[in-house]
């Protein structure tokens, strides 16, 4: 009998849906308290996951889901830069 490989699941901090880790985008808080998108999913730091649509980013901002997950206050200009990074990923 072959073993079944477990698929890592993560919860979106915007909509709250559980999805495959590879289908989601990781938002990272570095040890220097910098917030950025981790497209590789391997960088060091505390991570929170978002679905690959901008609506989930807006929901996370409204519900302060990212702030709770990353355990820090996030300013509006950080959300704007995350939104720009989202736009660049959508156009690739």
What does it look like?
The protein has 92 residues and is an alpha+beta fold. Helix content is 34%, strand content 22%. Strands 4-3-5 form a 3-stranded antiparallel sheet. A two-stranded antiparallel ribbon has the order 1-2. A hairpin with a 6-residue loop joins β1 (9-11) and β2. The longest helix is centred in the last third of the chain and has 15 residues, at 76-90. It starts with 8 loop residues before the first strand and ends with a helix.
Poorly predicted parts? none
What is the count of DSSP helices, taking H or I runs of 4+ residues? Answer: 3
The level of helicity is: 25-40%
Total strand segments = 5
Shape descriptor: globular
The description of the largest β-sheet is: 3 strands, antiparallel
Which strand-content bin applies to the residues?
Answer: 15-25%
What is the helix/strand order?
A: EEEEEHHH
**Secondary-structure content class:** alpha+beta
Give the strand line-up of the largest sheet: 4-3-5
Question: Key terms for this structure?
Answer:
92 residues; alpha+beta; 3-stranded antiparallel sheet; 34% helix; globular
Question: What's a concise summary of this model?
Answer:
The protein has helices spanning about 55-65, 65-70, 75-90; strands spanning about 10, 20, 25-30, 35-40, 45-50. With about 90 residues, it is α+β, with helices and mostly antiparallel strands.
Task: Describe the secondary structure blueprint for this structure.
Blueprint: E1 9-11, E2 18-20, E3 25-29, E4 35-38, E5 46-50, H1 54-63, H2 65-70, H3 76-90
